[in-house]
């Protein structure tokens, strides 16, 4: 095996992976136009390597990492579902992939039509009459939603600055609240793991702009008191926002707008099978009520009387732009492909199978692990490694041991209200055999915790690198190659 891990280490002077016409003459003319002080003193230290070696290098790296195309990925809340390859075929069609973002609307009718129809589909799924595809992540959807709330309250001459958030919330919720300079008020979940109307009433006040809620929540439980909660918040002059990250449990079953929510974000990279990325290449559309439509971010895809579509920037009440051009178009094509491939009934099947898979798996693993909230779950469930911790094996150790079996870890230590939490979301595409294999592995690890805990605490044993020093990796980041 090749011990050289960096492409720079494989570089051999004079090797090339391309053949292009000699452009040195033109280059020297261009150089002449660049002021001396901006010119490079020596050639860029790019790796010199032939194409087949580049391909092998990246393919080898890809199999060292765990990913959904290699094995089971039961990461909760973030819906790491399989991304059908047909999505990429559609996104690569030249009419989409070669469209320049500055092309005038009159030459972009196909792209605009796709955005219009995707927004229509999200509207149908959520019940919200208006959808903007502009935000590029769920968290940016939250940020946009809060700016909409602020615009709404200001237009009514009110200055409210607090948002109620349950203690089971995802970290981006309070972070979004502070990013617009507002404060979070925490509401405690009850003994069933959900929010009671009383808990909301206790913290509702005239300075509260609204409430943010995930449904099903991050414990995988359905918030069954939302209608009453909506009444309390609306009655007190606030708005309610649904964090749609867990929409994978709801499609064709529960429409947030029908029950009183005012704003929602969709994570296209979760529910709608587009690739995940570190806060970058996602897509986090938002849906809003009729009343909030005028505040939507710029531009809005609009339709003229003659039926043609255009990007509307003439919107005086808008919160403004969130992103260059129109967000993440290639991901809109992927999400559109997914929605059209499945259709309404197919999407309902997705949610039903996601819930069925989660409940089946929960019943299998609860034999060996604590289940703090024993209820019918939605698309995910949370178990605790409390029992194993007493034997000296922490949840982090269990997750590291899973890597030896070619399985990604569930979400660890979240939600915060469950000690030693493991949040498991199998998703709809996993087979019964995969779920049973995972349950068997979890059982084996539980046995090891009892009989040979050091096997678990020293894991992983079979990965290309063993246990990493995560704290040091974060504190002393080294992401550059220096000769
Ligand atoms: C993933 C997630 C978010 C944030 O979404 P991003 O698209 O990653 O920014 C917010 N809330 C919940 C419950 C999530 O699972």
Description:
Strands 1-7-6-5-4-2-3 form a seven-stranded mixed β-sheet, sandwiched between helices. A three-stranded antiparallel β-sheet has the order 10-12-11, covered by helices on one side. It has 483 residues and is an alpha/beta fold. The model has no long low-confidence stretch (mean pLDDT 94). Helix 3 runs antiparallel to helix 10 and helix 10 packs across helix 13. The protein folds into three domains: 62 residues, no CATH class; 256 residues, Aspartate Aminotransferase, domain 2; 131 residues, Aspartate Aminotransferase, domain 1 (Alpha-Beta Complex). The two termini are 23 Å apart. The protein is 37% helix and 10% strand. The longest helix is centred in the last third of the chain and has 37 residues. Helix 7 links the parallel strand 2 and strand 3. It is built from 15 helices and twelve strands. Bound molecules: pyridoxal-5'-phosphate. The site of pyridoxal-5'-phosphate has 14 residues, from helix 6.
List the helices and strands and how they pair.
Blueprint lengths: L23 H10 L17 H14 L20 H8 L1 H4 L11 H18 L3 E3 L5 H18 L6 E5 L5 H8 L3 E5 L9 H7 L4 E7 L11 H10 L3 E5 L19 E3 L20 E3 L11 E4 L5 E4 L16 H37 L15 E4 L1 H4 L5 H9 L7 E2 L8 E4 L7 H20 L1 H5 L12 H6 L8
Parallel strand pairs: 2-3, 2-4, 4-5, 5-6
Antiparallel strand pairs: 1-7, 6-7, 8-9, 10-12, 11-12
Helix pairs in contact: 3-10, 5-10, 6-7, 10-13
The structure holds pyridoxal-5'-phosphate.
The site of pyridoxal-5'-phosphate has 14 residues, from helix 6.
